[in-house]
Design a protein that fits this description.
The complex is a heterodimer of chains A (95) and B (175). Helix content of chain A is 78%, strand content 0%. Chain A has 95 residues and is mainly alpha-helical. Chain A has two domains: 17-62; 63-95, no CATH class. The longest helix of chain A is centred in the middle third of the chain and has 41 residues, at 20-60. Chain A is rod-shaped, with a radius of gyration of 38 Å. Chain B has two domains: 1-97, RNA polymerase sigma factor, region 2, helix turn helix motif (Rna Polymerase Sigma Factor, Chain: A); 98-175, Orthogonal Bundle (Arc Repressor Mutant, subunit A), CATH 1.10.10. With 175 residues, chain B is mostly helical. The longest helix of chain B is centred in the middle third of the chain and has 32 residues, at 55-86. Residues 164-175 of chain B have low confidence and may be disordered. The chains are: A mainly alpha (95), B mainly alpha (175).
Chain lengths: 95, 175
């Protein structure tokens, strides 16, 4: 038997002992930890969706009241301008 | 359900996984780390396992991939360590304890080391190794050939392996 074969034979015979129960507990603990992170992922998604919803709602539903529209703002300005005898328009044009 | 299957898998295959990885990495810490890594991967992959492949082949595949990635990561960290040492950013750290029997194996690259162990120690055929590792048979063959050459060279170099294991030397001189 040459040295190579002896070496391989020795490798086959060598098997360090392991505490499989303790290793199992550690695996369980680590898999549990990973699971809790995974489990919180849908909750995180839900929280982000809720945040986006609350941010988007004012843009869709309430654009700071009826005076928020450009045309209405301008109408209000010109209405007051007329009432003030074109004071605003005169001020802008004369400036 | 998956939990029960996992504990069964663990009980039935822990020895096989331990044997393979304990010859693949050399320190106790690495062995335990890698062992946990393998079974965590099995735990995570279990819900996707549909039984199309043989359970043992599937387990081997996960073990092999985890082991090769583990050693690659270690090699990368070692190189980084060397760079940091050369730049004097970190103090020199003593290398992990290496069993003298594992010393020749440490000369192989991660893939060669795994192929040699599967072929010579686990006595798997070239076809089985190729299937499990997802490699062409020719690649397995050439890697095995190269690995054998390196090991042969290492074991005759100064006989360091035989200093620690005199009974191996005795067997050699008998032959």
């Amino acid at each position: 038997m040459d040295r190579y074969s002896s070496y391989i034979r020795k490798l086959k015979q060598t098997a360090p002992k392991a505490d499989f129960d303790s290793l199992y507990r550690r695996i369980e603990a680590r898999s549990g930890a990973k699971k809790s992170v995974l489990m919180s992922r849908p909750l995180m998604g839900l929280a982000v969706a809720a945040l986006l919803f609350f941010l988007a709602v004012p843009l869709v539903i309430n654009r700071s009241g009826p005076a928020g529209e450009d045309s209405k703002v301008l109408a209000y300005v010109f209405q007051n301008d007329v009432a003030d005898d074109h004071a605003v328009a005169d001020f802008i044009l004369n400036d | 359900m998956a939990q029960i299957e996992f504990s069964l898998l663990y009980d039935n295959h822990k020895e096989m996984v331990w044997k393979l990885i304990s010859r693949y990495v050399f320190s106790r810490e690495d062995r335990e780390d890698l062992f946990q890594e393998v079974f965590l991967n099995i735990h995570n992959a279990l819900p996707k396992f549909r039984g199309e492949a043989n359970v043992e082949t599937w387990l081997y595949r996960i073990t092999i991939n985890a082991a090769i990635n583990y050693v690659k990561k270690q090699n990368f960290n070692r190189k980084l360590q060397q760079i940091l040492e050369s730049l004097r950013i970190v103090e020199e750290i003593s290398p992990a304890e290496i069993d003298e029997l594992s010393l020749p194996l440490a000369k192989l690259n991660p893939r060669q080391r795994m192929i040699l162990l599967l072929a010579e120690v686990e006595e798997k055929s070239l076809e089985e190794i190729a299937e499990t590792m997802g490699l062409p048979v020719g690649t397995v063959k050439s890697n095995l050939h190269r690995a054998k050459e390196i090991i042969k060279k290492e074991v005759v170099k100064d006989g360091s392996v035989f200093k620690l294991y005199p009974e191996v030397e005795t067997n050699c001189s008998e032959s």
